[in-house]
Structure formats: C-alpha cells, structure tokens
Amino acid sequence: MAQTKGILEDSRLIGWTQIVQLTEKTRIVSTHFRILKKSAPRIVTQKMSGRKFEIADCIVGDQTAIINLTLWNEDIDVIEECRTYTLLNGLINVYDECMFLTRGKRGELIESIIPIENVNDQVDMSRPFMWKPKRKEKPRSPTGRSFQGTAGREAKGYCARKSF
Hints:
This protein is mainly beta. The protein has a domain at about 5-110: CATH 2.40.50.140. Helices cover about 5% and strands about 30% of the residues. The chain has one helix and seven strands; from the N terminus they run ββββαβββ. The chain has one helix at about 75-80; strands spanning about 30-40, 40-45, 50-60, 65-70, 85-95, 100, 110. The protein has a five-stranded mixed barrel with strand order 1-3-4-6-5. A hairpin with a 6-residue loop joins strand 2 and strand 3. The termini are far apart.
C-alpha cells in the first residue's frame, strides 16, 4: 500500500536501482519511478482456490527507461497517474521473455516527495529480450565453410548454391 514517508527519500539510505539496470536475475528491487499510464483494472480468478483478484498494468519510468508495473487489488486504487512513487523490496517477473515489475508480498509502494520530471521512453525494458545483452556478430568467411570446417563450394571453384 502507498504511504508517505519522508525519511526514505534520502538516497544515501537506500541503494536505488535504475530501471535500465534491471535484469531477469535481479531478485529484490528498490527503485524510484513516475507513473506514466495506468490501464483499466481486470478481474482474474485463481484456478486452484477460485479466489478473485483485481489486476491493472501501469507503465512506469525514470530518467533511464520505462517498464510495466503490475498492480494487485488495493494498490490499484491508491496509485495515480503522473505521480512519483518509490518501490521497496519489489520483484522482477519474466513472462513470454518480457520483464515486469511487481510489488510482491513483502514489497512496499510509497508515494515520493521527490518528483521525476524527465522520463526516457526510448528504452522499454518490457519489450521481449530487451534486457539481454546483444551478441557480437561473427564476420562471415568470404569463401564459405561447411559445418565440418572444410572449404565450401565457392572455394573449390564451383558456383554458389543460390547463384544460378
């Protein structure tokens, strides 16, 4: 639930994680963000117990990137657009190779007094594989090689497979 606490606003007390630094292996997250857009809540029924939950997705961001935040039940009513919040002990979920931020059981969502004016919406950490580092491309051999490592058709003097 969101509360207002001024003592937590000192960034020297808590090690903040910027959104662009989040990975799928990040376990506990303390971050500072601004709510950009909040979707309409939907009702989901748990299969095992039949309990109903209210879920809403928000797009949140800071100076480095944006990410999707999943809100559950009472957090939906407390959170408002264009406000700044602090998430303490939040969690990272990965579904269909997309990364989501959530409060979790032990997390706290606190309204912040320090505003975030500029949000970088160019980097979206919720896009598939955005959080994975880019692989270096290996240069291709001009002569071509087979899987066994022997010279390919072009090196032997024949035409390439698709050149005729």
